[in-house]
Amino acid sequence: MDLKFTAEEEAFRSEVLAFLNERLPQRIAGKVSNGRHLTRDDMAQWHAILHEKGWLANHWPREYGGPGWTAVQKFIFENECAIAGAPRIVPFGVNMLGPVLIKYGSEAQKRYWLPRILDGSDWWCQGYSEPGAGSDLASLRTTAVRDGDHYVVNGQKTWTTLGHYANMIFCLVRTATDVRKQEGISFLLIDMTTPGIEVRPIVTLDGEHEVNEVFFTDVRVPVANLVGEENRGWTYAKYLLTYERTNIAGVGFSVAALARLKRAAQKITRNGKPLAEDPQFAARIAKVEIDLDNMKTTNLRVIAAVAGGGVPGAESSMLKIRGTEIRQEISSLLRRAMGPYAVPFVEEALEEGYAGEAIGPDEAASAAAQYFNNRKLSIFGGSNEIQKNIISRMILGL
Ligand SMILES: Cc1cc2nc3c(=O)[nH]c(=O)nc-3n(C[C@H](O)[C@H](O)[C@H](O)COP(=O)(O)OP(=O)(O)OC[C@H]3O[C@@H](n4cnc5c(N)ncnc54)[C@H](O)[C@@H]3O)c2cc1C
Predict the structure, then answer these.
(1) Which of 48, 102, 135, 318 has its C-alpha lying 20 to 30 A from 288's C-alpha?
(2) Could you list the residue range(s) of the whole structural domain that residue 43 is in?
(3) How many other C-beta atoms can be found within 10 angstroms of the C-beta atom of residue 311?
(4) What domain count does the chain have?
């Protein structure tokens, strides 16, 4: 197995870098690199730029608008984007629903919904989790009862990321109760403007409104919005989760965060010297850098295996755990580097054009907020404890 990129792959990387240089708006990259808030328009603008280039849905088949890239090309693209400060592609339509519709949707659904995902006509959110149904997702209780050519939906979803921007939500709903709980779940596409839907914000510990609760009261959904077969939704849900975990290691995000940490550690002084020269702090930076390098190698090994026709198994769980631990460690080190500057984080300083007094170095404004925000990484997309259960089942047979 060769972990070096080929000449063609290096040429592809140069093409990606040239594109980022030309098309990634510096205003947006600056916000991402400094941990500032991104608006809905910022995210939509990057989505539109990628769509125009034909690089948005990079893992869709060509016939639906994908670029036909290999696993290595996707890895190169996603990591170079992260290092350059591009925003994360909002994943719910492109990365999650799209592949499900391509595999399980009807022809009419593919024809109608896929182009709307690409051109940004619809902003999708994910209605899986409920109070009492997170890790144990199959315990979900939101019901959909058939009434003529509609389903009537009642219940509640929670942790719905960017649901306040969305006009559409894909939901797992219970359509049968007299069977094993996994066998009574269906996959429904719901228009968020339908009467009976209420979105309430959840403000997280970093002061952000990123997630929501969504309530459904007698919401009428056309039967045509059922994906696949009734009561087969668990199969589609699991298929979607494999896509939720693609590029889960987030190597590029960690590379960018580590560069920022190193910059910050040069600006802060301790005992008259840059913090970067403090032996204990330098050792912690070195350790996380070595961990990151190791994880990158593991990630490339998995990609090489996939390119050779293999299927990632427990490795994607390992990458999820290590990737999120490394990102959390880097944000923890940045917060430590900022010391007292990080504690009273000023929320307004996270907005574009903040003209107030700078408190500490540039990196200070978002250090605490990002530290808090990154706690989520080990929870969503299947918590790290659940990933460890998967590894123990698949490798140790426990
Ligand atoms: C910021 C954020 C955004 C999210 N966005 C979305 C979204 O857009 N759409 C959506 O549907 N969901 C979303 N989620 C929900 C996310 O998928 C769940 O939070 C996650 O699956 C965990 O479920 P839970 O919160 O109910 O915790 P629980 O399942 O109650 O777990 C609580 C703790 O117990 C541990 N635990 C649970 N079961 C086991 C077990 N069997 N063995 C060992 N440990 C266990 C967990 O690891 C965790 O530490 C989001 C969550 C967060 C934090």
Answers:
(1) 135
(2) 7-89
(3) 9
(4) 3
